[in-house]
Design a protein that fits this description.
Protein name: LEC14B homolog
WD repeats: 213-247, 248-281, 295-336, 419-460
Helix content: 10-25%
InterPro entries: DCAF, DCAF11/LEC14B, WD40/YVTN_repeat-like_dom_sf, WD40_PAC1, WD40_repeat_dom_sf, WD40_rpt
CATH topology of the largest domain: Methylamine Dehydrogenase, Chain H
Strand order of the largest sheet: 2-3-4-5-9
CATH class of the largest domain: Mainly Beta
Largest sheet: 5 strands, mixed
Shape: globular
Oligomer: single chain
Family: Belongs to the WD repeat LEC14B family.
Organism: Theobroma cacao
Number of helices: 6
Number of strands: 29
Strand content: 25-35%
CATH superfamily of the largest domain: YVTN repeat-like/Quinoprotein amine dehydrogenase
Length: 471
């Protein structure tokens, strides 16, 4: 029982966090909605049936970590170990809420940042042509310091190849550049110390000067890139052939976000300023530009989409100040009219969202859940599912224009945690794929790390607005 006693000491703080969540109404049964994804989430992150049986007629409460450890020692599964769902049930309670500890501070707005799939690297892209790749396992030492080429306004997106050998970065330009991350050089100045190869997405585009890319992503096999652009289109680039392979005139306004739905690469999700999310199936393009389906529910433009990775579910952030959860089986063949419910002069880049519009709902809303509390203003705020390995994707999390980060329970919709630290919008954020560690990147130039329980050093502190929020 020595291992049990050791683990019990480590679990006390996590149990305290769970009790806090329960008081805030974020238990697994609070606000329960009857839909497949909630059943799947509970299967991924719920304890073994022998421990989760409750009293008939009473609400089933989360199983304590202590009870889980006792059950493991008693070999209740017959396997002598936790199942993956058991592990998620324990690990998902240890939210990365302590800190922050500063990773870096740059005199430039941080626009994008993401962990690599294995968590060993972290990429951050800044407005002033600067990208840094940190080696997480070596004390956040800078592995690659990149000065980008031919930017227009800012780095709008970056994507690391699945094998972590290459990084692509996009701007408000038809040219996406690719960098060899695996090279020996730490300093990578575009076409001075290293070649940043150009990938031209424009093809025969008539207006190269007005063409810009908001979002770019590698396919799971690393052979293709998919990009969203301000020409209302989706572009697919074949890296082996070194040319664009598909152009989809997808929306009636800027396409702000796009991603592959799963590892097959057949399905693509897109979101636009026309308020619509669309699903594209590359296997059955009967008519060029014809979507497999349309999903309505947002009242304003879509800023970001993240796929659950199963080709069925995804979430989106909208300028109507909501995150929505979607099931593509509810999609329509055509879009119904989206009513204009606010001042047509409203602009999310510098105006607050009208108070009266916050309670409004789309009359043909096809989403299966809506999450509120954060703000989506100033810039294209991003949102994500929490990691599968450690949480069973039972949470979603998003940046916020008020300098915060919010974590919501996928099933109940409750806000289970939030971080309030930055002086300016948190445009991007990333949860480590295996550890209870979160990174927030903000327009104040700070890359901040949040953990559970955190290191021995004191969290970083600074005086608010000591240098102005928009360097």
């Amino acid at each position: 029982m020595s291992r049990l006693r050791k683990d019990v000491n480590a679990c006390n703080e996590g149990n305290a966090l769970s009790r806090t969540c329960a008081r805030q109404g974020c238990s697994e049964n609070s606000g329960y909605l009857d839909h497949d994804i909630f059943q799947l989430t509970n299967l991924r992150s719920g304890p073994h049936d022998l421990l989760s049986r409750g009293v008939p007629g009473r609400m089933k409460l989360p199983v304590s970590t202590l009870k889980m450890l006792v059950g493991r020692e008693g070999n209740y599964t017959g396997r002598g170990r936790f199942t993956s769902a058991d592990s998620c049930h324990v690990l998902s309670r240890y939210l990365p809420v302590n800190g922050p500890w500063w990773v870096d501070q740059v005199k430039s707005r941080a626009y994008v940042s993401q962990f690599s799939a294995d968590g060993s690297l972290f990429v951050a892209g800044f407005q002033r042509s600067h990208i840094r790749i940190y080696n997480v396992d070596r004390g956040w030492k800078v592995k690659k310091d990149i000065m980008a080429k031919s930017l227009r306004w800012t780095i709008t997106d970056t994507s690391l190849s699945p094998d972590q050998r290459f990084l692509v970065y996009a701007s408000l330009s038809p040219i996406v550049h690719i960098v060899n991350v695996g090279s020996a050089a730490t300093e990578s100045v575009a076409n001075i110390t290293e070649i940043h190869d150009s990938l031209d997405f424009a093809g025969d585009h008539d207006d190269d000067d007005g063409f810009g890319i908001f979002s770019v992503k590698f396919s799971t096999d690393g052979r293709e890139l998919v990009a969203a652009s301000n020409d209302n289109s989706i572009h697919v680039y074949d890296l082996e052939a070194k040319r664009p392979s598909l152009l989809i005139p997808a929306h009636k306004s800027d396409v702000n976000t796009v991603c592959f739905a799963d590892e097959t690469g057949h399905l693509i999700f897109s979101g636009s300023d026309d308020h619509l999310c669309k699903v594209w199936d590359r296997r059955c393009f009967v008519t060029k530009g014809k979507a497999a389906g349309v999903l309505m529910g947002h009242l304003e433009g879509i800023t970001f989409i993240d796929s659950r990775g199963d080709g069925r579910y995804f979430i989106s952030n909208g300028k109507d100040q909501t995150t929505k959860l979607w099931d593509i089986r509810k999609m329509s063949s055509n879009a119904a009219y989206t009513p204009r419910l606010r001042d047509p002069e409203w602009d999310y880049r510098w105006m607050d969202y009208p108070t009266h519009a916050r309670a409004l709902k789309h009359p043909h809303d096809q989403s299966i859940a809506t999450y509120r509390g954060h703000s989506v203003l100033c810039t294209l705020i991003r949102c994500y599912f929490s990691p599968s390995y450690s949480t069973g994707q039972k949470y979603i999390y998003t940046g916020s224009s008020d300098g915060s980060l919010f974590i919501y329970d996928l099933v109940s919709g409750a806000q289970v945690a939030s971080h309030h630290h930055h002086d300016a919008p948190v445009r991007d954020c990333s949860w480590h794929p295996f550890y209870p560690m979160m990174i927030t990147s903000s327009w104040d130039g700070v890359i901040a790390r949040w953990e559970f329980p955190g290191g021995n050093e004191e969290p970083s502190r600074w005086e608010p607005n000591h240098r102005g929020p928009f360097f």
